[in-house]
């Protein structure tokens, strides 16, 4: 059970001195949980189709090389959206045929590099297609190439993560005047354009809207293929990349909605998608990792302000940026442990859980009922395996925390393995131009 595994890992992290005065923040990842989610994803699609499916993990959700390595070993690939993310996938040993490059701002050099390597590329817009025309004419490539479209079906509850709104910055806006015909034309003009890509959004987008986005893209593929069959006898679109975006439940340990429920919904909404005529690519991120990460921080002080109890901890905006800046959209569950890592009990008291950064809004939770916290206690922000401690925000020059993984053993002692060591002060100085100290003094 995930909760029990987590409790034992918190205890072990403290015993193994991974959470100390020197390193008052540490992150934990549940290896068994990650494996189980990868298996659930594979099984969900295998249950509805015999077609080949590449599950490309969205690297931005968890940009750690050992995590990518584990997911590769679990049969997954990687969706990358920057030269850095591509380098991480390569460092993890992923072969080009497991990698998909998306990004709305690829440079000519990035495109040329991707085509030379043979990774799949999804173009975002007509200008990018024109660049690809020149590159494809100049050198042969093994890269499958697709076009991202925005079905403009609307957003979810979080604007910043809704990618299929009428004015989203991503892909070709399919319902704009003339756009659909231009997309069909783009395929007729380019025999190497063989994929369609869409990603309707992330957290806050309901399953039904995700499925509608996929259905719209399936219908567009059918329309393009009817046109290419008339022109050349060939069904040119052979693969549909349906993006990621499965939302995550941040309110309990329950993993819902499931990959299986989503795959079944897709099979209902667009049965033709799974009948073997199309290969598939998925790009899930948050739903593979979020439930398996725990962020630990020591309580430094406790105080009251305006009669409200506040626990001042070391985890705030640097590791929970979205929660701090947009707390209504991103509430996190908080668990309390004592200094030895034992779950705390005691009658809950409403208290704020504050971070270390120097602005008033740096709060992990406001008026949260928790056992009374004391200095030396440990707070745990749950469900933080995706987009939290791996998406560091360098405010106040606070260091990136170490990330450590635990793997279940049959009740025995558990060893935590380090995936990323905590950032050291010399690294912070170096990243702040430490080697260029006198640059402004030179005349
Ligand atoms: C962010 C992103 C994903 C992953 O989204 P999740 O909500 O983490 O599943 C997939 N595809 C693209 C193009 C993205 O930008």
Question: Can you walk through the features of this model?
Answer:
- This protein is an alpha/beta fold and 443 residues long.
- It has two domains: 2-28 and 293-431, Lyase, Ornithine Decarboxylase, Chain A, domain 1 (Beta Barrel); 30-289, Alpha-Beta Barrel (TIM Barrel).
- Helices cover 30% and strands 21% of the residues.
- It is built from twelve helices and 18 strands.
- The strands form two sheets. Strands 1, 11, 12, 13, 14, 15, 16, 17 and 18 form a nine-stranded mixed beta sheet that branches. An eight-stranded parallel beta barrel has the order 2-3-4-5-6-8-9-10, surrounded by six helices.
- Helix 5 (108-117) links the parallel strand 4 and strand 5.
- Helix 8 packs across helix 9.
- It is globular.
- It starts with a helix and ends in a 12-residue tail after the last helix.
- The mean pLDDT is 96.
- The site of pyridoxal-5'-phosphate (PLP) has 16 residues, from helix 10.
What are the key terms here?
binds pyridoxal-5'-phosphate, Diaminopimelate decarboxylase, globular, Lyase, Ornithine Decarboxylase, Chain A, domain 1, TIM Barrel, alpha/beta, 443 residues, eight-stranded parallel β-barrel, single chain
């Amino acid at each position: 059970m995930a909760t029990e595994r987590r409790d034992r890992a918190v205890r072990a992290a403290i015993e193994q001195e991974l959470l100390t005065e020197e390193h008052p923040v540490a992150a934990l990842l549940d290896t068994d949980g990650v494996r189980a989610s990868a298996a659930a994803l594979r099984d969900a699609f295998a249950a509805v189709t015999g077609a080949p499916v590449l599950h490309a993990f969205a690297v931005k959700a968890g940009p750690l090389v050992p995590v990518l390595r584990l997911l590769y070993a679990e049969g997954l690939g990687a969706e990358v959206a920057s030269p850095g993310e591509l380098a991480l996938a390569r460092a993890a040993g992923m072969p080009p045929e497991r990698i998909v490059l998306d990004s709305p701002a690829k440079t000519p050099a990035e495109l040329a590099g991707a085509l030379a390597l043979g990774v799949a590329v999804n173009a975002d817009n007509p200008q990018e297609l024109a660049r690809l025309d020149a590159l494809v004419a100049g050198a042969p490539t093994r890269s499958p190439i697709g076009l991202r479209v925005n079905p403009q079906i609307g957003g979810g509850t979080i604007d910043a993560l809704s990618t299929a709104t009428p004015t989203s910055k991503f892909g070709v806006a399919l319902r704009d005047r003339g756009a659909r015909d231009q997309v069909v034309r783009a395929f007729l003009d380019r025999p190497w354009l063989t994929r369609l890509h869409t990603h309707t959004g992330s957290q806050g987008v309901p399953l039904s809207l995700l499925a509608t986005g996929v259905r719209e893209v399936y219908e567009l593929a059918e329309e393009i293929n009817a046109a290419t069959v008339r022109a050349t006898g060939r069904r040119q679109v052979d693969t549909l990349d349906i993006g990621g975006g499965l939302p995550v439940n941040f309110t309990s340990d329950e993993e819902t909605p499931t990959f299986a429920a989503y795959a079944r919904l897709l099979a209902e909404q667009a049965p033709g998608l799974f009948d073997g005529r199309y290969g598939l690519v998925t790009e899930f991120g948050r739903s593979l990792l979020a439930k398996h990460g725990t962020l630990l921080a020591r309580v430094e002080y406790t105080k009251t302000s305006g009669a409200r109890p506040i626990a001042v901890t070391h985890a705030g905006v640097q590791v929970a940026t979205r929660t701090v800046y947009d707390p209504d959209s991103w509430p996190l569950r908080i668990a309390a442990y004592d200094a030895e890592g034992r779950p705390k009990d005691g009658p809950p008291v409403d208290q704020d859980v504050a971070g270390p950064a120097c602005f008033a809004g740096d709060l992990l939770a406001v008026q949260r009922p928790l056992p009374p916290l004391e200095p030396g206690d440990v707070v745990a922000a749950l469900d933080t395996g995706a987009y939290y401690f791996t998406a560091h925000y360098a405010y106040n020059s606070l260091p990136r925390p170490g990330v450590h993984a635990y793997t279940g053993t049959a009740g025995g002692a558990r060893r935590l393995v380090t995936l990323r060591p905590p950032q050291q002060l010399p690294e912070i100085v170096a990243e702040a131009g430490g080697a260029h100290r006198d640059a402004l003094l030179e005349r």
